[in-house]
Each structure stands twice: as structure tokens, then as C-alpha cells.
Amino acid sequence: MSDKRVAIITGSSRGIGRGIALALAEHGWRIVINYHSNSEAAAKTRADVTARGGEALLVQADTGDLASLEKLVDSTLAQYGRVDMLVNNAGVAPRQRRDILQTTPESYDEVMAINLRGPFFLTQRVAGEMVRLRDAGIISAPKIINIGSISAYTSSTARAEYCISKAGMAMLTKLWADRLAEYGINVYEIRPGIIATDLTAVVKDKYDHLILDQGLTPIRRWGLPADIGKAVVAIATDLLPFSTGEVINVDGGFHMHRL
Ligand code: NAP
User: Helix count (H) and strand count (E) of the chain?
Assistant: First the structure.
């Protein structure tokens, strides 16, 4: 069996997840590329992983559906026999931005199911497998990374359900970090700022103005998926062994209070 480490990255067909996949591939990781519906984008990411000398498995699964998350883990173990890292990255904005006075129960439930409930139970399943694989000497120093957001602490009243899901992700990180430390599993939250992906394409003009003209972030540029990929590589290559439950802001300095 190969000793190359294996990462499951949810939502890695596009955007930030894809950036993480490419960065890890360059460091010799084998990647489980999960996607929801865009099989073409997933195939492109796999081709780009391969072009970097890496290896990838494509698995369709919906983080809003717990049964399909079981399939994601089962397929990983069937193919590679190990999982060294889980990156809970997949996430969605509400289908329609609505003022908090008009948020619908359907939109609330959908966003929370994909962004928070799925990651919670996927972490539970993967953590159990990691403990087993570690006890068997197959893996060492496994890790879990949650992709949070500046929306965990920044009010956007036209997408309340998104903000609440990301605030929940912050506690999810602490809870699992606390529980899993005794098994040598470190858990981190990476908290991106405004990153150029399909998710933010709809508000490009607004943020161009805020970032480039108004200096919303001290570092006056959009973040890139590769910026998040580099932070993941730092964790993946064991550069933060004495940190767990830690939030790593990758946001151009957005999180600072400024006068
Ligand atoms: P994106 O460009 O819209 O990409 C979303 C990815 O998630 C795609 O690979 C998509 O798969 C997958 N996905 C969507 N719904 C899914 C589901 N139900 N099950 C499984 N996979 C699903 O988004 P992004 O900007 O890269 O965002 C990735 C994460 O970063 C999200 O959690 C987001 O909240 C967070 N984030 C983003 C920003 C930002 O500025 N972009 C800032 C802070 C945090 P398909 O290709 O199959 O649709």
C-alpha cells in the first residue's frame, strides 16, 4: 500500500477547494475530489492534479445529505485504505439574498444542512476512521481543517443563514479540537476573507470598489484560492504541531479593527 498521504476535500471541483487540491498535489498528497453537480469542473481539477504529478479520486456527494457523505468516506477507504486529512470546504450562499426579516425556513435549512450539519457528521465519521487507522499504525498526525469565513463575526443581514452557519463552524472547530486532541488529531479553522471564486463573482463590482478604491482590507487585493491552499499546506506539512482549535485568518487583514 502506498504511503502517500490522502486528503478528502469537500467541494474541490471549483474555487477554494480546487486551490487547496492543487496546492496539496504539489506536495505529494493524493486527493479525493468531492463535487456536487459540476462533474466537468471536477474532471478538470483531477486533470490539473495529475499534471502536477498527483493522483485523485472523484466522488460525487452532497454535504447536505448524510448518506452521500458515508459514500464519500467509503469510496476513499475502498480506493486508498487511509485518510490523513479532511478539509470541510464545501459551502453555499443562500440561493437568493433576502433581508433577515424575510429569510425563509427553506433557505435557512438548506444552508445550514450543507454548510454546518454535513461537516459536523462528516467530521464525526472521519474522526472515527482516523482513530482506527492511527491505532493500526497506518497514519500519523491526522488533521481536520474547516473552511470558515469572516462572516462568522461580520453581520450581513441579507444572508443571515450563511453568517450563522459560519459562526457555527467556529464552534465546530473548537469542539472537535477539544475532543480529538487525545488521539493526536489537530483541528484548525481557516477563515478566508474575500476570495475571487464563482461564489463572489456576483458581487465583483461592489468588492472591486471596496477593496481597490476604499481599502476595505489593508492588503489591497482580492484573495485567491491559492492563498488558502498555502495555509492548508502549512498545516499539512506539520508546521503547526502544537496548535489546535486555532483560527488562521487568510483575509488581507480584514479582521483587524482599524481607526
Ligand atoms: P464556489 O466557488 O461556489 O465553489 C463551491 C464548491 O463547493 C464547488 O466545488 C461545488 O461543487 C461545491 N459544493 C457546493 N454545494 C455542495 C454540496 N451540497 N455538496 C458538496 N459540494 C458542494 O465557492 P468558494 O468560494 O470556493 O467557497 C468554498 C468555501 O469557502 C465555502 O465554504 C465558502 O463559504 C467559503 N468561503 C468563501 C469565501 C469567498 O470569498 N469566496 C470567503 C469565505 C469563505 P460543484 O462544482 O459540483 O457545484
Answer: 9, 7
Determine, yes or no, domain membership for 259: no
Give the domain extent around 186: 6-249
pLDDT, tens digit (0-9, with 9 covering 90-100), for 63-82: 999 999 999 999 999 999 99
Q: What's the pTM value of the predicted model, to 2 decimals?
A: 0.98
61 belongs to a structural domain: yes
Tell me what pLDDT residue 200 has.
95
The pLDDT tens digits for 13-36 are 999 999 999 999 999 999 999 999
Minimal-distance CA residue to ligand 1 atom 34: 91
Strands 30-35 vs 6-9: parallel, antiparallel or unpaired? parallel
Counting ligand 1 atoms within 8 A of each CB, the residue from 12, 16, 156, 211 with the most, and so the one to mutate, is 16
Q: Does 258 map to a domain?
A: no
CATH number at residue 59: 3.40.50.720
Nearest CA to ligand 1 atom 16: 36
Kindly list the protein residues whose Cβ atom lies closer than 6 A to any atom of ligand 1. 10-17, 34-38, 41, 62-64, 89-92, 114, 147, 149, 192, 194-195, 197-200
**Residue located via cell numbers 495555509:** 231
Q: Which residues pair with 172 in a beta bridge?
A: none
Given 162, 183, 188, 207, the catalytic residue: 162
pLDDT band for position 1 (50/70/90)?
Answer: low
- 106 near 94, Cβ under 8 Å? no
Is 164 part of any domain?
A: yes
The three-point CA angle 127-189-169 to 5° equals 80
Q: How many domains does the chain have?
A: 1
The yes-or-no answer on residue 153 being catalytic is no
